């Protein structure tokens, strides 16, 4: 098996060249994913759930019946929130199993390729009303094969002990994610506004094939990650110390849940709130699916420079500190939305720049906590279970997004300021908990972190 020192020659912004191909793959994959997600809630509320359309969608009536059995009767916005929560939740549940498949059977490269193909089929199926539920299932399965495994490959590009360089590498990788996440809703939203919802979904399908081409083009720049059953796979079984590290990492992953409950509200409830209360002018509400990602893109180079400068002065926050700071910023951004609703009550009253600013802070918080979480797990996890553990990191957003979908039902029953204040309080409580547990968690991971 190749190590970081065996990488092919060549660099990308001072990092291994393979990072450019992995970031490019995620750029196009996230373009399609967020481009579709930006349309999802409004598409359901404004077309799919109308009686003349809903009656033709395979499996939709059963899904709604099950949702109302759990949460009680709900309007179309509430049901769309539940579906959005289920979808985004299971998108983050299946990567754990994708990591197991890569570690045990197929290796990361084959698993990622299968994932891209499944996601392409899912986006294509979204262009037909009848296949809506089937499309979501294909997208969930495809994301499971792709997400954790492509992130774990970023970790293989760096020496085990270089925590700061790896954090910056994951920040660059996540910038690719956010460029795709920012441009996807802009393009699919514009296409949907001109040619209809299904044209927007078709754009997402085409860009998944671009993601596949990018990934295949970069194969020679990526290290081999053979499955555990491969004859040359030499990783020893987990020791007691390894097992302890795994449990500490699981605790860190679970502690990202408050941020992952607070943040996805801007994707599910956010478009509805923006459409109702923000003074948009000529800006489509769907474009707000890009605003948090644009905030992340702006923040990324600033954070990379800040962390590098802090590292030179030995003042860079440790990984747990960065995760806590990001969780706090996400909570503050949600409180900003609550303040906007309180200060500017009424339809179309919240200033556009106020809402954009809150979304930008949300994106900055994400850049602090999520790339750092993936970097930490890839660096500290025992080599035999790296892909499984990175895939397991997505269990946090799985649980959290399901919770967010259920909490989103309350939007129709609360004032906007009360709803966003509740959302922000969840994020701030998570930040307090992370700061309080920071010394204990750092002791648990220090044996393998190289710091």
Sheet with most strands: strand arrangement: 1-2
**Share of residues in helices:** over 70%
The named CATH superfamily: MFS general substrate transporter like domains
Task: Give the tally of structural domains.
Answer: 1
Radius of gyration: 21 Å
State the order of secondary-structure elements, H for helix, E for strand: EEHHHHHHHHHHHHHHHHHH
Overall pLDDT: 84
Distance between the termini: 25 Å
β-sheet strand percentage: under 5%
What is the correct CATH architecture? Answer: Up-down Bundle
Low-confidence stretches: 1-9
Q: How does the overall form come out from the CA principal axes?
A: globular
- Summing up helix and strand content along with how strands pair, one would put the structural category as mainly alpha
CATH fold label: Growth Hormone, Chain: A
The total of helices stands at: 18
Instruction: Report on the biggest sheet.
Output: 2 strands, antiparallel
